[in-house]
Each structure stands twice: as structure tokens, then as C-alpha cells.
Design brief:
The chain has 574 residues and is α/β, with parallel strands linked by helices. Helices cover 26% and strands 23% of the residues. Helix 3 links the parallel strand 2 and strand 3. The chain binds adenosine-5'-triphosphate (ATP) and magnesium ion.
Amino acid sequence: MEKKQTNFIREIIDTDIENNKNDGRVHTRFPPEPNGYLHIGHAKAICLNFGIAADYNGLYNLRFDDTNPCKEEVEYVESIKQDVKWLGFDWGEREYYASDYFEKLYEYAVELIKRGKAYVDDLTAEQIRSYRGTLTRPGKNSPFRERGVEENLALFSRMRNGEFKDGERVLRAKINMASPNLNMRDPVIYRIMHAAHHKTKDKWCIYPMYDFAHGLCDSIEGITHSICTLEFENHRPLYDWFLEQLDVYRPRQIEFARLNLSYTVMSKRKLLELVEGGNVFGWDDPRMPTLSGLRRRGYTPDSIRKFCERIGVAKYNSTIDISILEQSIREELNKTTMRTMAVLRPLKVIIDNYPEDKEEEFEAVNNPEDESMGTRKVPFSRELYIEYDDFREVPPKKFYRLSPGKEVRLRYAYFITCTKVVKDEKTGDILELHCTYDPATRGGDAPDGRKVKATLHWVCAKRAKRAQVRLYEHLFTRENPVGNDEEEKDFKDFLNPASLKTIHDCCIEPALINANPFERFQFERLGYFCVDGKDTKKGRPVFNRIVSLRDSWAKIEQTQKNRGLNKKNKNCFS
Ligand code: ATP
Ligand code: MG
């Protein structure tokens, strides 16, 4: 593991421990709403919350924020648990649900009423909105604001008993309709929803609002540091207000900047739109920024945790270049994956001076970064496949690969020279190449010291197996698909039509035919690939390209610099 860097949240915790606040305890939580699958932004929050607790020998809770029965599903709860575990965090017994506390939260609401701090309002949602005022204009008190405690208690109890229809009444906190902070203008804390809940079923027809429930759940669980994203900053006074009025244990809310990644979207609502609209094949489509998508694409938990560590934690919003995520998996796979040769778009090469029924094997290094990974045998014979793109009949300037009369090296094998191009008479398409080889260059070096400018990967035509390969590009063509609010455009207008390219008959080294789902390889010169966990059938592997080999640190640093991100995210490049 890279050394954990400090950040402003860790500094707050250090100070709290020094002052023996909370008796030196550290207890955090990750509170997903089960209304979609987790994405890489959630990974940042998980690594932060759970990582901090682990480092301080503290505790962490997984708490489902299931206060809205209409948007939530059991499928999401299960996927969230799977993803958190996969990321490497074990919450043990500490799996909680806001709905576990519905009775307790109800009692808190009753207590607020008794203390004259909450009232039942008969205004419609529409009226409440118009009474609320604006940033420049104070709100107006509801005519029901001064109801007596007894009447409020009776009405709230009747709300619970199902005597009213959805939206007919709400319970509101009695704070200040003229507060400059709109969140403090008598926010709604309970609403009527005659809807079954995935856990409490039909027990409740009133449900607490997030702002009311969240802080109180934190308090009930003894959370010391309630870490959330920046948009909750001006909800903090409200968070504190409930705890203060009820005189209960007070966790501290700390906000940090949410993760934004270039060329993708990060809100569950938008991701759901892509899933439901059929723009992707599902939540686990390898193009999605979801953890299930990244997992299927071939990302490892470690590469995602390292990425989260690298981007750090800040108090201002910024966008991280997606190449930083790609670099973190590339670095890992460079060290861990076996190299193999695969040809995506095969072009047949016939070596005319190689004996027709001869076959030999070459010793290939499995990973030059790690000798312990050993070597393997790669079969060779008279007919081979090379990459279509590695040949040009009329080579442009600086094209050093194969062309008529040119000599190149076949990786691990021989030097070959192209002598003839066979084309389809009608279409002019190149069908195959004829070459000669130099037997003296066996193993890939010429005894007379002559050099070639290119080394090509290849597979033996006789022994090659077939596979499907899926190549991916960014899901969107724009760095920020959401754009700004003035634009009329929908983010889906910027979907990249070339984000998935499927190639059906790629040639692979024979041993790859038995690769297992989620096994990862480097295809030499092409990138890192992962066996698809869903569509692979026995003897018919499907490979997802995780990432190409291309990007270098220099280039990434340059993009970040151009985007003015270097100063703020210095730690990205350490
Ligand atoms: P979304 O907008 O994607 O629906 P959310 O905030 O509504 O996200 P929740 O399930 O409520 O999703 O989030 C659970 C936790 O994850 C919250 O503490 C939230 O602050 C955090 N979180 C969500 N998105 C990000 C992000 N992009 N970066 C960092 N943390 C995030
Ligand atoms: Mg949310």
C-alpha cells in the first residue's frame, strides 16, 4: 500500500483525539440510499469513511438510508453489499438501515412537537413552496404554525394511523421562516406516503425526510464523524439543530468534495436513465462508472482503492481526468498480468521458404517485470496471422511496420520480409501476404547485427483459437457531458457512438481458450484485457479491453496541467 497521506478530515480527527473528544473513539458510516448501483464516486466515500475508521482502530457502519420507499429496491441493497465487500471492506455485524429506527425517529418527532419545535401543516406542497420565499425574500409563516401541542400530537398520530391521503398534511420543524439559509425555513420532517417499504412493508404510511433522519441515525449509532459531500454544507445547521433540540449525542458533520470524473456522469439518477433507456446494457456494462461495471471491465479493487488514495480529499469541487483512473489499473496490471499474443484483425501471412509441415515452438517471457512468472511455449508454423493494421501496401512516412520489400521482426521468432501481396481482384481488398524468413534470425536477432525497425505480434494460423474482443472508448464525447445549466442539451446527446466496438473473430494463443472469467492478460502491443464474466462460454471466450497500453505519465500530467488541476491535486503525481 502507498503511504496514507493526511488530509483535512484526518487533521480534524487528530485534534479530536488529542482533546479526548468522544473518549478518543472514531466511528464512521457509509450511508448509501438503495436507489441504484454504487459508482466510483461512492468508492471514494467508502475508502474515506471506512479507511479512516480502520486506520484509527475505529468502527464503521454500513447504513442504508432507506427513507424513501418509492425509489428503493432489494436488488440495490444486495448489489451495494456485494460492491462494498468487493472493494475490500468488511462491516461485520454493523449493517444497519434507517428503517430500523423508524419507531425511534417517530418518538423523536413526537418529542419535538412536545417541545414546541414541530407542527403539523395542512398547506399543500405547492403552497409550502410559495410560502418559503427566496434567497432574497424571507418566507411567510404558515397559518397552521401556531397550532397547540395537543392538536399537533393528535394530528401527527392520525397521520401515522393512515387517516389522511398522501400530501394532505406534513410535519414541519418550527425554526425560522426568515432564515437566510433556506434549509432552516421550517423544513418538512415527515410526509405521508401510502407505499410499502422493502423492509417495514405496510407498517408505516409516514416517512421521515433525509435531513431529519440522517443526523439522528448518526446519533443513535454513536457516529463520531459524519462525513458527507459538499452539497450538504448548508444543511449542517439543520443537522445540528435537530440534535440540539432533542438533546441527544452529537456527531460532527464534515463535508468533502465529491468525485467528478471526465467523460462520464456520476449521478445514480442519470446512470439509471442510461440503463432504462437502453443506452448501455445494464448497471454492469463495462463502460459504466459503476463498481459493477468497472469490475466487469477488469478493474481490481486494489486499483480503485489506490486511485481514491491518489486523488486525495479536498474541500472544493474539481474534475479528475479519467486517465488517472486508467493509469492506476495499468500500473498494477503491468506488474501482475501474463503477456500473450492476440491478433484483433487477422491478416494471413504465408512464409514461402518455411517447410510446409514443419512446426516449432518459441519460448516467450510471461512478464518481463516479474521473472518468477516464467515462460511459455508459443507455436509457430508456415502460416501466421499478423495485425491487419501492421501492414501497408504503400507505407506513409514513418510507417516502419510491414510493407512490400520491408523486413520486420516477429516477436520471439524470426525476421520476415514481405515479397508479395495477394488481393481480391474485384474489391482490391488485401487477402494475404507472402513473405520469406531468415532462418539465421531464430529467436529474433540477426547474427550479422542488422536491425529492423519494428517487432510485430502474431499467432500461428494452424493453432490459433478464436475469441470475441470488445474495445471501449469513453462513454461520452465531452469531458463534462452534463455541461452547464444554461445549455438546453441533454447529457445523452453527448453519448459516444463509438464507445463499444465488438470484434468477433480475433485470433488468440491456444492456451487462452481456457481462460477463466475475470482472468486478466496483457495482449502485447494492444492493452490489458479481462475475460468477461457474463458472456464467456466454455471454449468461446469474450475479452474486454480494460485499458490500452498507450498513455504515459508525461501525457497525463500534461492534460492535468492544461486543465489547471496540477496545483490542487499535487498528490496525483507523487
Ligand atoms: P448520486 O447523486 O450519485 O445519487 P447520492 O449522494 O445521492 O449520489 P447516496 O447513496 O445518497 O448517493 O450516497 C451515499 C454516500 O456516498 C453519501 O455520503 C454521498 O455523499 C457519497 N457520494 C455520492 N456520490 C459521491 C461522489 N461522486 N463522490 C464522493 N462521494 C459521493
Ligand atoms: Mg442521495
